[in-house]
Design goal:
2 strands; about 15% strand; two-stranded antiparallel sheet; 2 helices; about 65% helix; alpha+beta; single chain
């Protein structure tokens, strides 16, 4: 009689442990998925400062590499060739 109770208790403990483990894995996987989706969505937005006011612009799909390149070169020239103010 005592052995049957111990076996049932051990089965119950193992069942609860496996259930908790599976629940943790499922919650972790859902968290990773939600984080990945949020990161992907945030990378599609560009924040532009206009007179210290942030504006949100959506990223265009390709084709604007020459415009971006010119902006990068212009910014580099401004930062590199402008003497520091004292």
């Amino acid at each position: 009689m005592l052995i049957e109770n111990i076996e049932k208790k051990i089965r119950l403990v193992v069942f609860i442990a496996v259930l908790a483990l599976l629940g943790g894995v499922i919650i972790g996987a859902l968290g990773l998925y939600a984080g990945h989706r949020a990161l992907s969505e945030s990378q599609e937005k560009i924040y532009i400062l206009s007179n210290d006011v942030p504006l949100i612009a959506h990223k265009a799909e390709g084709g604007h590499l020459d415009i971006e390149g010119r902006a990068i070169v212009k910014n580099f020239h401004k930062l590199f060739f402008t003497p520091p103010s004292r």
